[in-house]
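Here is the promised in-class demo. Please do not try to memorize the tokens; focus on the logic of going from shape to residues.
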């Protein structure tokens, strides 16, 4: 009996690797409770993990519809199907998961790293904006090292991702996360200082510049200790006022501002255009809408056919 059970799940795994929906339903018809087995296992390599890793988009969506709980399971390496789809750049599967269950943006994998943390580290501005739109509270998720997605973006030198996260935090009145500390007591401002990221420090208005880490250092102390060449500049620098950072809505009022301010506004517009362009190429449907694809099952480029549904103004929302 035990060997028969093993054989059943070996067959199910082979079906998942092939992405064969017909054979999936044949197995379900033969063994109606075949998917119930996974309800009682805390960590396992489910057929949804296999499909997500192999890029079997249609099969993954079919299986998740039959058994949504599979999307919440972690494999023996501590990853969910959503994590595996991201790691293997199967973007259409990621969007399919997102359309079915937007809370997967916050699913914690190994190290309590969420999909939002992962795309912040990669600097994928397009997916980052989609994830924030789908699951706004995900911006507050912390890794096992007490890092927010903003910490991760700055540590990974992903400036565009940082700007998207910063704009989002301000739009949804979550600016307090900018002062949250990681396990070493470092705020985002500390990290930017330790990496000489002046652009990041320029944009971090309204933060507590006097905050100290576990070593008792402020960001300015770090710059001075490391004899950073940017210390004199930052020491006498006043962070941009919030209305300048969010100046996209007031471009006409600041048309005659400094060249630096103009360059910054242009940078924001470039980010917005990038999001809109990438969204158009990917045929994004906002979470809660329908998800569609009409090209081959396996993909690596994330481009699908479809009509653009994100407006330019909505793109600005993410980075303003």
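The designed amino acids, position by position:
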């Amino acid at each position: 009996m035990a060997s028969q059970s093993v054989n059943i799940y070996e067959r199910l795994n082979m079906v998942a690797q092939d992405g064969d929906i017909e054979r999936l339903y044949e197995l379900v018809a033969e063994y109606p409770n075949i998917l119930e087995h996974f309800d009682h296992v805390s960590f396992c390599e489910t057929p949804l993990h296999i499909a997500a890793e192999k890029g079997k988009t249609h099969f993954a969506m079919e299986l998740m519809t039959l058994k949504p709980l599979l999307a919440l399971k972690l494999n023996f390496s501590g990853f969910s199907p959503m994590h595996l789809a991201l790691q293997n750049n199967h973007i259409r599967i990621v969007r399919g998961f997102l359309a079915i269950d937007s809370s997967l943006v916050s699913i914690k994998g190994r190290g309590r790293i969420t999909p939002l943390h992962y795309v912040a580290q990669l600097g994928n501005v397009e997916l980052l904006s989609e994830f924030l739109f789908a699951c706004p509270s995900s911006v507050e998720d912390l890794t096992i090292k007490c890092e927010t997605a903003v910490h991760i973006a700055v540590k990974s030198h992903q400036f565009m991702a940082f700007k998207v996260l910063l704009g989002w935090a301000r739009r949804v009145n979550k600016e307090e996360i900018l002062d949250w500390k990681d396990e070493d007591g470092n705020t985002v401002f500390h990290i930017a200082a330790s990496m000489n990221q002046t652009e990041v420090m320029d944009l971090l208005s309204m933060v507590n510049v006097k905050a100290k880490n576990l070593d008792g250092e402020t960001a300015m102390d770090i710059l001075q200790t490391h004899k950073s060449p940017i210390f004199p500049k930052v020491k006498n620098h006043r962070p941009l006022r919030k209305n300048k950072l969010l100046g996209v809505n007031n471009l006409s009022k600041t048309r005659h501002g400094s060249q630096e301010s103009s360059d910054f506004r242009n940078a924001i517009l470039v980010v917005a255009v990038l999001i809109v362009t990438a969204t158009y190429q990917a045929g994004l449907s906002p979470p809660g809408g329908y998800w569609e694809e009409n090209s081959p099952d396996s993909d690596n480029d994330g481009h699908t056919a479809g009509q653009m549904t994100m407006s330019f103004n909505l793109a600005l929302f993410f980075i303003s």
